[in-house]
Amino acid sequence: MLVVVFELCFGNYAFSVNPPKREFRGAWIQCVNGQFQGIGTKQMQKTLTRQLDELQKIGVNAIIFQVRAECDALYPSKYEPWSKFLTGRQGVAPTPYWDPLQWMIDQCHKRGMELHAWINPYRAKTKTTNELTKNHVVNQHPERVFAYDGLYILNPGLSENSDYICKIAEDILQRYD
Fold first, then answer.
1. Which end of the chain has a smaller Cβ tally under 10 Å, C or N?
2. Cα→Cα distances 58→49, 51, 55, 103, Å
3. Calpha distance 140→136 (Å, rounded)
């Protein structure tokens, strides 16, 4: 009985003092700060390449890349418009055309890094957005959104919004590694 009590009380201690076999050393690359807005494909790829190279040098092994800032996409989506944080105007595809999410996956894997797609599930509009496309969820379903401090938020209490967000995540998971 004493051995069982000892194991229950101190068994996890032995595990916690041993370093993990692998650490998650991640960095977040966001789009919502406007760093890529309207700079074009070549400049964005150059900026991302520099960021990935520097992060790799300091031992980062996972990138969390923001691909959905306000019910929009930094990848081709059949459900949501291209992000204004990519091209400067919501709904406008990048020129020359490219898929930033797939490009980032390829670049990260080339460096031995993981890529994790970060989505903002409920934010539908930031304070800096003045124009939303016709196919944006806010315009398609205004009854599912509420305003708060200059933002639009998908109402998390509505099952339709939960289903919608799951559909977006499922689309990403099915199409990307």
1. N
2. 15, 11, 5, 22
3. 6
Cβ atoms of 84 and 48 closer than 8 Å: no
User: How many residues in the chain?
Assistant: 177
Q: Which pLDDT tens digit goes with each residue over 77-90?
A: 999 999 999 989 99
123-140 pLDDT, tens digit per residue, is 999 999 999 999 999 999
Q: What is the pTM of this model?
A: 0.85
DSSP string, 2-46: HHHHHHHHHHHHHHHHSPPSS---EEEE-STTSTTTTS-HHHHHH
* Cα dist from 127 to 81, 118, 151, 152, 153, whole Å: 18, 20, 5, 9, 11
